[in-house]
Specification:
The chain has 11 helices and 13 strands. It is an alpha/beta fold. It has 2 domains: 2-118, NAD(P)-binding Rossmann-like Domain (Rossmann fold), CATH 3.40.50; 122-280 and 298-325, 2-Layer Sandwich (Dihydrodipicolinate Reductase, domain 2), CATH 3.30.360.
């Protein structure tokens, strides 16, 4: 499959290039980037042409898909251009920075009839799939509450000092800091698994003053249409402690940490925990798009996932508005 890389701005770009190099069925045919020096360096590394004109890059003969690793604000333009060219799409997360942009991107994707995958991977890991199966089978009963922490120490580690990735700390390009970045994974996961969110209350701020133009920590309280309550935490100033998902229901609770899932029935003896075997992980990110094209994953389910990507944007927008205005916001 011939691919076009549209921007190498994202920190995950090297991982996608590694995937392309290691798979015999993938070929990087062209690189476009609004930072020419960055794009030219990637093209030289991968042994393919750099094209400064986006339209020309999308017209390269034999192209089947685009890999979009632009700054967050650049996603809509590149997704719409790819869809208009009839190309399948892998795009980094978050989907967009506004609900209007997300809706326009969905319309472009569905209107063109192309496949699209965004850069979310946590729901498709083995332990997460095992947890989702327990929830879907009703083993937890009625879900009443959940927590999800997705955090690391990027601010203290000065991860975004290099010019190529400094956009993560520029509000106009990133849309926000840790809550937009790490929180996107949590918002997508809980929307996908637990359904629509009816209201959001949040506190989002900068704790470290390391990248003061954007937030480095945020907590959101979500009320789901199902009646469940969720607490999401996202951080760039996290130096230790547990991350992952905890869910409590009327029949029991579960915890997902890394690739381990633990289930505790309501009537369990004190300290009794059942370790649940992880399921086989599904392909994620760029390889998820490849699997969809090969018919290895359900395309209808993938299309429904796009709604969760869109709704994660709405939750994020509502959370930032709640934090600014000091009130509960409906996404």
């Amino acid at each position: 499959m011939k691919l076009a890389l549209l921007s190498g701005a994202h920190v995950h770009t090297p991982g996608y290039l590694k995937t392309i190099r290691e798979r015999d069925d993938l070929e990087l045919a062209v690189v476009w980037d609004d930072m020419e020096s960055r794009g030219q360096a990637i093209a030289a590394e991968m042994g393919c042409p750099f094209e400064a004109d986006l339209d020309a890059a999308l017209r390269v003969a034999g192209l089947e898909a685009t890999v979009i690793c632009a700054d967050n604000a650049g996603h809509r333009k590149l997704v719409e251009a790819s869809a208009a060219a009839g190309l399948d799409i892998f795009c980094e997360k978050p989907m967009a920075l506004s609900v209007d942009d997300a809706n326009a991107m969905l319309a472009a994707i569905r209107g063109a009839g192309v496949l699209a995958v965004f850069g979310f991977f946590q729901p498709y890991q083995g332990a997460a799939l095992a947890a989702r199966k327990l929830i879907a089978e009703g083993k937890l009963g009625t879900i009443t509450q959940l927590t999800y922490r997705n955090s690391h120490h990027a601010a203290y580690g000065r991860w975004f000092d290099r010019p190529e990735v400094a956009w993560f700390t520029v509000p106009e390009k990133a849309g926000g800091g840790a809550f937009c970045d790490m929180g996107a994974h949590a918002m997508h996961f809980v929307r996908l698994v637990f359904g629509p969110v009816s209201s959001v209350s949040a506190s989002i701020s900068n704790k470290s003053n390391e990248y003061p133009a954007v937030d480095d920590h945020g907590v959101a309280l979500l009320e789901f249409e199902s009646g469940a309550t969720g607490v999401l935490e996202a951080s760039w100033v996290f130096t230790g402690g547990p991350t992952g998902l905890e869910v409590v229901g009327s029949k029991g609770s579960l915890r997902v940490r890394g690739n381990q899932c633990e289930f505790t029935p309501f009537d369990a003896k004190p300290g009794e925990v059942q370790v649940i075997e992880p399921l086989e992980a599904e392909p994620t990110r760029l390889e998820r798009l490849v699997a969809l094209k090969q018919g290895l994953l359900d395309r209808a389910e993938a299309d429904r996932d796009l709604d969760s990507c869109r709704d994660a944007v709405a939750i994020s927008v509502a959370a930032y508005a709640s934090s600014r205005e000091g009130r509960r916001v409906n996404p």
